[in-house]
Every structure is written in C-alpha cells, then in structure tokens.
Write a structure and sequence with these properties.
alpha/beta, disordered N terminus, Arc Repressor Mutant, subunit A, about 40% helix, five-stranded parallel β-sheet, Rossmann fold, single chain
Length: about 350
C-alpha cells in the first residue's frame, strides 16, 4: 500500500524541524496514484461503513495497516480507538493476556489489572496483523469471543462485553494455512469476510515518486535535517528496482539517503549495492537483451496498458517523448497517461 505522510499541526512545521527531539505527530494516508491502488480504494470506501470483517492479504511492507486505518477512518467507528496488534511479535505464553488482559495476581508479575487489546478497542476497530501466526490455542478463544462478543480477563471471573470491528491481515491467503493444519477452519470461515488484495509496490509504479517525496519530507521533519534531493539518474534507478520489501523498503532507503546526504543530491553511488545492480550486467561488450515485460491476460486491459506505459517511462528515465517513441504512440497519449496516473481518485 502506498502511503501519504502529512504532519500535524501545519502551523508548527518549522518548530518541529528545529526541535527534532520533540515527538512528531504523523498522520498516514494511502497514496492512490496508481490504478491498482485506486481500484483497491474504491472497494475500501464501499465496505468501510458496513459492519463486516475485512481481511487484507499482501506481501510484507505493502502497507496493510495503513489500509486498515483507512477503513477505520471512513467508518462510523472513526471516533473510537484503532488498536493494532502484530500476532507474530507476541510470545505464545503472553498472547492471552495481551489480547484479553489480566487481573491483578493472575500470574507472577501481574501486579495490577491490565486491559487487553480487545477491551481497548471497544467502540472502534481491532486490527490483527499476521493473524496466521496466532497460536492454535488462542484461535479457539478468539473464535469464542467473536461468536458472542464476550470474554474474561486472565484470572478474572466476570464476562466483559465489547463492541469492536475486526480487520485482519496476512502475508498469504489463510486457505493455505487451513490446508496445512496451522489455522482453524471454523475461525477462518468466521473471519473471512471481505478479502482484499493489497498489491506490491512493483505493481504500482505510479506511486513510487509521490511516496519518495513524502518520505523525504517526513525524514526532514523527523530528524530535523535539510531535505535530500535526488538526481535524475537516482530516480531512474529507484524506478527500475523491483522493491521486494515494498513501501517499507522504500522508506528505509529514503531515510538512509536523507541522513547520508542531508541537503545534498543523492547519487546512484549512494544507493545500497542491491539497487545499483538492477540494470543489465553484460559480458564483455555484448549488448543487453531487449527489455521484456510480462502482462497477464487475466488482468483488465487498462491495468495492462498502465504497466506497459510505466515500464517504458522507467526505461527512458522518465523522458515522455522517448517513451512515446519506444511504444510508437503519440506524445499526447503518453502525457494523458502521466496526468491520469498523477491524479488520485
């Protein structure tokens, strides 16, 4: 998922830059320049105000939590809390307490009552990231809660009623985990709801530049430094890269460049080695093979056209005239594509 980063409040922007140690309030919204993200957002807006479970499926770093927050912000629960929990980051022994809370004296070290994530999300949204990593024993307890919206804290005797909306996220479709015996089928059918695929960054090239610019702004404010600038060659290299780590990887690279080249131009040589080697590496003086782009016949025609035009722009370092000549289309056609890709909605 692409991200758009804005800073609040606008009037204190300069103050935050000069005081990097102060906590920075950052609001994150999706970047919706690419066709893939605009199509996803249309569905998000359709289901946001419906009280149904939404399941987000996508590679690591695509921004599934950002989409979950957008679902919350567009829903009637927007004034309630948005509570996120990463199921892969919690030790199994602590999972029940983390999810449902505990009473004082429930176990060694429980010196006070603690609210769990479920209770904290009352009136809002509970986001369970990487739910496929939830221990099987906890899956049964989550299923029981979802069926009647009641639970007890660890060590407690009183049932607590909570009204929360569930949004889940996984790296892989949960059907695979069910078949492998790692996820309960009854819980899967209870939470399947509306399944949405969050596309990887390599399938939404139009989002790369706006994401990069927003991350440059974020790092400038977060670290109290002058914004880094990108040379045309650096931008071309970043567009040509496949981004296996998706938006998270892009943000990390921008942070690296921002700290290394504060207020200066980031050159290709400043990029991590894996990104400098994405271009053709030939043997001797042999010319590179003609570029090949695979297009699926199962995808909509307009999406395939966008991928072809975006690939041509990357090959020509963003030069629209050369990209148009490469594809034997008019410059006006290429300009219309660029204008459409830059217009969210």
């Amino acid at each position: 998922m692409g991200l758009f980063v804005s800073f609040l409040p606008p009037s204190s922007y300069n103050a935050r830059v000069t005081s990097p140690k102060r906590q920075i309030d950052i609001v994150i919204h999706p970047v919706l320049h690419s066709l893939a993200m605009r199509k996803l957002d249309r569905v998000v807006r359709l289901v946001a105000n419906k009280d149904v479970v939404v399941s987000l499926v996508g590679e690591s770093g695509t921004g599934k939590e950002v989409i979950a927050r957008r679902l919350h912000d567009l829903s009637p629960r927007r004034r309630g809390p948005f509570v996120a929990i990463n199921c892969a980051a919690i030790p199994e022994a602590l999972f029940e307490s983390e999810l449902f809370g505990h009473e004082k004296g429930a176990f060694t070290g429980a010196t006070a009552r603690a609210l769990g994530k479920v209770e904290a999300s009352d009136g809002g949204t509970l986001f369970l990231d990487e739910i496929g990593e939830m221990p099987v024993a906890m899956q049964a307890k989550l299923l029981r809660f979802l069926e009647n919206r009641r639970f007890m804290r660890v060590g407690g005797s009183t049932k607590i009623v909570v009204d929360t909306r569930l949004v889940t996220a996984t790296l892989r479709p949960l059907e695979d985990e069910v078949r492998a015996g790692r996820f309960r089928a009854d819980l899967f059918y209870r939470i399947e709801g509306i399944a949405l695929q969050v596309p990887p960054l390599r399938e939404r090239a139009a989002d790369i530049l706006p994401l990069l610019l927003q991350f440059v702004d974020e790092m400038s404010v977060r670290h109290g430094i002058k914004p880094v600038r990108m040379t045309r060659a650096t931008l071309a290299q970043l567009r040509a890269y496949g981004w296996p780590g998706n938006v998270r990887e892009l943000r990390n690279v921008v942070q690296l460049l921002s700290l290394m080249r504060e207020g200066k131009k980031a050159r290709v040589v400043d990029l991590p080695e894996r990104m400098r080697l994405v271009r053709y590496i030939g043997r001797g003086n042999a010319p590179p093979a003609p570029p090949v782009l695979e297009v699926s016949l199962d995808r909509p025609l307009d999406e395939s056209i966008e991928r072809i035009l975006a690939a041509a722009l990357r090959l020509e370092d963003g030069n629209r005239a050369r990209a148009a000549r490469r594809l034997s289309v008019s410059l006006r056609t290429m300009q219309r594509f660029v204008a459409r890709a830059a217009t969210p909605g």
